[in-house]
Write a sequence for this structure.
């Protein structure tokens, strides 16, 4: 049986270079203060310019904090679009 030869797929580096303008990272972390209080931090990082797009700090997070922070991060700018 003859194998059909597939074209090679792109590498992760090529994928990243092609889509870097559409990629963001989000992180939710807990920070302890000097007075032993806990602060909850939500941060959105843009890969294209390597900068923080948005961050939010609160002592009392709610269930919808991450969704609200994402809406606030892309309020005036367009959100990353799906690659076509």
């Amino acid at each position: 049986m003859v194998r059909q030869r597939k074209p090679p797929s792109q590498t992760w580096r090529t994928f990243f270079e092609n889509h870097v303008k559409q990629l963001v990272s989000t992180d939710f972390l807990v920070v302890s203060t000097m007075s032993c209080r806990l602060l909850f931090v939500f941060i959105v990082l843009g890969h294209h310019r390597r900068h923080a797009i948005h961050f939010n700090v609160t002592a009392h997070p709610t269930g919808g904090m991450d969704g609200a922070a994402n809406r606030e991060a892309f309020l005036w700018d367009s959100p990353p679009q799906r690659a076509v």
The mean pLDDT is 82.
